[in-house]
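idk why but the lab printer keeps eating my pages so im just putting this in chat instead. protein + 2-acetamido-2-deoxy-beta-D-glucopyranose:
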Amino acid sequence: MHLLNLAILSLVGSTDAWQAGRPRYGLVGFSFYLYDPPCASACQGVFRKNPIFCTDAASFKGSGTAGMSHGGSPMESSDTLQNYTTTPSAACLAASEDFLTSEAWCIHEKCTDIHIWKLEKWWENYVVGNFESDPPPSLSYGAALALVTSKPSYTCAKGINMNGTCLPNESIWSARFLAIDKYNEVENQHEYFGLVVFLTSIGLPIVLSLFRFAPFSKRWASTLNGRIIYTSIHRSWRNSFVVAVFDQPPTLGQA
Ligand SMILES: *[C@@H]1O[C@H](CO)[C@@H](O)[C@H](O)[C@H]1NC(C)=O
Ligand SMILES: *[C@@H]1O[C@H](CO)[C@@H](O)[C@H](O)[C@H]1NC(C)=O
Ligand SMILES: *[C@@H]1O[C@H](CO)[C@@H](O)[C@H](O)[C@H]1NC(C)=O
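predcted complex ->
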């Protein structure tokens, strides 16, 4: 039974880890991938180092930007940084056309073999952020992509203000993609082994207990019982001084 508990714990545990994000149901790695599709998930956060134009106070709160040190208004920071922040609020991201069109282009370029419905679904849930409280994007994936009339002309290198649609930095995207791909693979294996242990610990006893209906001869049955069910798991333990302390060792049938 310990094995069973362990298996259940390992299954519950892996979905537990997602409590912080949007609620999802099923076994990680089977009914869905944590980061699915990886090409799109690698686009999420690829522009993290690019200041984004925001006007809401939440985007500038406690970010330590120049704006805050000049009396609390982002208006007072140097003019090139005016109202640009690397700590945009979810509401700002959800509304930012620059951000959404750049993300849409990234996904369009990287996810060439993924169904559009899947991309739209991912977009709706994750382009802004992983939290359930995050507002949905103001544009659908299709609508954001439609706003990009030609391939963006510049890459959003680290620190460059996002003031239009830009391309993702290739090396940052690739690093994210590899990490996510590896993560999915490991997570999938983890679930696979969890499920094997789970099914074995439930299924095997059932199958074994069905053996009693099999037409074994009496002699066979008692041999089987003797060998498998009543055998001590620790032979040498029996009849030794240990018994005096720990009592008889459990038999295989008990274990
Ligand atoms: C910058 O944001 C503030 C609010 O934080 C807003 O009042 C101001 O109009 C914004 N500046 C520009 C240029 O949009
Ligand atoms: C992409 O990022 C890497 C590492 O941060 C940097 O070395 C490279 O110059 C960047 N490329 C572009 C086109 O911005
Ligand atoms: C975006 O900002 C860069 C400087 O960071 C500037 O050279 C460029 O003209 C701006 N583009 C637009 C569309 O405002």
